[in-house]
Design a protein that fits this description.
The chain is mainly α and 165 residues long. It has three domains: 56 residues, Ferritin, CATH 1.20.1260.10; 65 residues, Ferritin, core subunit, four-helix bundle (Ferritin, Up-down Bundle), CATH 1.20.1260.10; 37 residues, Single Sheet (Rubrerythrin, domain 2), CATH 2.20.28. The protein has four helices and three strands; from the N terminus they run ααααβββ. A hairpin with a 6-residue loop joins strand 1 and strand 2. Bound molecules: fe (ii) ion (3 copies).
Length: 165
Amino acid sequence: MSKSTEDLQAGFAGESQANRRYLAFAKRAEEEGHPQAAKLFRAAAHAETVHALNHLKALGEIKSTSENLEAAVRAENYEAVTMYPGFVRDAEADGNRQALRSFQYALAVEKVHESLYRKAIETLGKETSNEDYYVCPICGYTHYGSAPAQCPVCATPGAKFERIS
Ligand code: FE2
Ligand code: FE2
Ligand code: FE2
């Protein structure tokens, strides 16, 4: 791999992280009554997304939807089968309860994502309905169709789920 390809990957990771970090900081700024600082965080967050997407495009990692769904299955499978189980063990060994819960939520939900992506590969181009997805704001559990009564991963009421249409 060339040095500039490595740099694009590192740049994509860093810019993606900066985006989410600044959005989290913006939320905190709003809560603390600093709307101007919140706005700056949101503006910079948006710019970091522009940078991240430029890097990803330069990497050639945005392909056809069919290929992208396959890539998504591989990524979710790696997280669910290898990465998060290892992280869960590390958090248990360290006695870090907050990390453990965070990893357990992600582990449970990445499995669901893998299965949703696999289904999407089967039905791509032959969809007969256009259902929405619902996402749990606490654990990220992702549900197809309509919100469940209660999140099966973290028990948050379905009424709190965010609809993705
Ligand atoms: Fe940037
Ligand atoms: Fe995922
Ligand atoms: Fe949940």
